Prior knowledge:
The structure holds two protein chains of two kinds. By secondary structure, chain A is mostly helical. Chain A contains eleven helices and four strands; from the N terminus they run H-H-H-H-E-E-E-H-H-H-H-E-H-H-H.
Amino acid sequence: MKYGGACTLHRLRTSLTGVDMSQALQQLINGITLGAIYGLIAIGYTMVYGIIGMINFAHGDIYMVSAFIAVTCFTLVASSGISSVVATIAITLVVCIALTSAFGWTVERVGYRPLRGSSRLAPLISSIGISIFLQNAVQITQGARVKSIQPLVTGGVNLIAAEGHHGAYVSYTQILIVAVTVLLMCGFTLFINRTSFGRQQRACEQDQRMMQFLGYNVDRIIALTFMIGAGLAAVAGVMVTLYYGVVDFSIGFQAGIKAFTAAVLGGIGSLPGAMLGGVIIGLIEAFWAAYLSPEYKDVATFVILIVVLMFRPSGLLGRPEVEKV
Amino acid sequence: MINEAPQETIEASTDRFRIESEHLEMGMNGLKHSMNVVAGIGLGGLALTWSVAACANLVVGVAGPMTGEYASGGEQFRKGAEQAVKDINAAGGLLGQKVDLVVGDDVCDPKQAVSVANSFVNKKVAFVDGHWCSSSTLPASDVYNDAQIPQVTVSTNPKITERGIQGIFRITGRDDQQGQVAGDYIAENFKGKKIAVVDEKTAYGGGLADEIAKELSAKQTPVVLRQSITAGEKDYSGLVSKLKANGVEVLAYGGYYQEVALILRQAAQAGLKLALIGGDTLTNNELVNAAGPEINKVIFTFPPDPRKNAAAAKVVEALRAQKIEPEGYMLYSYAAMQVFADAAKRANSTDYAAVVKQLHNASFSTVVGPVDFDAKGDLKSPGYVVYRWKGNNYEYVNK
């Protein structure tokens, strides 16, 4: 009896460590990777909301544009004879961030700045218009078909390979995505908290009119905020292109909605909240798809969002709106 | 808020009903057309005479996804029909009439398919070559049936010919036949391996996967995982780790090529070695690009390669001379036009009842070999062969 019990226990432990644990770890890795990408996009939503109080629905499409720039850039670099993977990724990142930031600036200048001071709904509608414009412009100029690149970073590390045929596997691409995101987040946090632009931006969030009285160019600060958001989305675009290898003109919609959800879940306006929300949504999707049903993972994501908002209306890390007197 | 489907069709709407007329008197047609418009404003009687004159040509339609995700399949389909119409006209037309081809773009969207069908009806087409996707063919065929227009399709969902519609014919096999061939292949060649059956819940993918699963259980081959996924996503890592956790070595997949490419790439990234078996849509050469080196793991069923037919030699040559490789559905689309032209000739009319009667009873020789339809409109002897991708080309598995 005692012996049998031990045996069962042993079997249980084997199954836990061998099968369940490795799958759980695998999904943890997949979820964090996905979450990092969502988080990078979510920061663009949350920052813009923080500073001018609008949801920039075109942000997902800015990300889509950056993925197309990344595909073009990867192909060009590959055909120009540069074979170093590190150089290829570095060049693509720089080009992508530069061009996409320019896109972000243009969108703000053309679509939102003329509407500043009008009703709150006007720039919202404008952002939906820009979203449709960008999608269709890309569809018409690049074609409706899927664009793909050859896998650039291949291989990875097996984490638990002891139990035989399957363990948890981290691909180098996943490591790269998470590493780049963590580095970027650290740098970004320092940038917002320590530099004079960061201070100006936070001050703008609190009181734009006062900033104007003090002689700051508020338009410039807002434009820069859009450019930074677009730059982060550009990094996400490059990472997604590396990770999945295929892009099409409609990827911005789904990614945008997920990232927006991440921003709301984390508390819109809060930068760490956006990152946290991204990772949580990535994890929910990964675990739901693996243990329950891949078909219903989006349903699960949004149900959890609704539940969280019922109990914490301002999101996980958001501060409740204080009525200003 | 932002609905995806209508946007995909924006491009579609511009060239949806472009008339592919190979006419020398193109200018004349344009004149007739504008006269129609002018006359239509006030001179009703005149307009009538003009439109009768404009209808002297016989109009046939080809419909499929000319834009959107599955555009390359639609392109094969359209090019086959164009070449067939060209050849028919070069041989003096059909029943003394020149044949005009109208192209309908359904983007593989059932709603769009119905509006394409309605517009074909308005254009009074005598015959429809299409549609391509099962989910488009199903709703569109009801419209053609009401309007009494005969139709030859390549869609493989069994339901298409099971609804008692007289005027619909299928020039390829059905998913149940296709699934049977794929299931047999798996049972024979992957004995003892762990097998998963996955589909993407479309009329085509779900149907095919069900048939494969059915055949596998008939052959007493166990399936360790039966799963559905949502098409159109980018992240299938959840599915991949589920496959990995179950130790799956062979994946039977019902669906289109985009998801296949993503699943294979993500499986490779997760260090999972898979053999993937799918259906006829995996002939698409865009899969090569999207799947990268993983393409060599793809096995699929497709009707015997018609390019190897002696009867197709002339057409294949003509297409290759225009730098068009007659792959996938191109020759099937060509054959659909041939079958209609032949039936109309035999009936000496393009009247629905007469043509349909010929289609049901006669046998036709086409570029895809002899074609004989049964009472339902299915091929009497459909063949499916198992192919394998190798680099940029596919070949028979058993040579």
